[in-house]
Amino acid sequence: MLSKEEIKKIIPQREPFLMIDEIESYIPGEKAIAYKNIDKNEWYFKGHFPDNPIMPGVLITESLAQTGAVAILSMEENKGKNALFGGINKMKFKKMVLPGDKLKLEVKIIKRKGPIGIGEAIASVKGEIVAIGELTFALI
């Protein structure tokens, strides 16, 4: 298990845009499993939506991307680099993510060629898929 402070040693994101709270497990260059506890006081709920708070799909996607970044940037040869979006493919949102949910984030790296790679990304709450798709990243 990695804490937020340990995650910050791997990826460059910081609050309020650090979108993962802990890493359950990871294999450098292969996969990572993370969690985000969705608190009713999250900054984005003030506007999305004040009377019906729902985690934005783009932030679920960002949470998945940060999880994948842990897998890629934890590799010794990638320390100090950053992983940027190169594409978001086949992303589907199946259910809403609400305050009080614990979002499980799983990313498996399925392809790599040079500085470009693709991760298979799945977000779930209580075993039910809330988002699924592929994320393309570029290392810089």
Task: Give a written overview of the molecule.
By secondary structure, this protein is α+β, with helices and mostly antiparallel strands. The chain has one domain (4-139): Thiol Ester Dehydrase, Chain A (Roll). Helix content is 15%, strand content 41%. It contains 2 helices and 6 strands, in the order αββαββββ. The protein has helices at residues 4-7, 57-73, and strands at 22-27, 31-37, 83-93, 102-113, 116-125, 128-139. Strands 1-2-4-5-6-3 form a 6-stranded antiparallel beta sheet, covered by helices on one side. β1 and β2 form a beta hairpin. The two termini are 27 Å apart. 31% of the residues are buried. The mean pLDDT is 97.
What layout of secondary structure does this protein have?
Layout: H1 4-7, E1 22-27, E2 31-37, H2 57-73, E3 83-93, E4 102-113, E5 116-125, E6 128-139
Antiparallel strand pairs: 1-2, 2-4, 3-6, 4-5, 5-6
Strand order of the largest sheet: 1-2-4-5-6-3
Percent of residues in helical segments? 10-25%
CATH superfamily descriptor: Hotdog Thioesterase
Mean pLDDT: 97
Number of H- or I-type helical stretches: 2
Structural class from helices and strands?
A: alpha+beta
Write the element-wise H/E pattern from the N-terminal end onward. HEEHEEEE
Give the tally of β-strands. 6
Envelope shape: globular
**How many separate domains make up the residues?**
1
Radius of gyration (CA) equals: 14 Å
Low-confidence stretches: none
CATH architecture: Roll
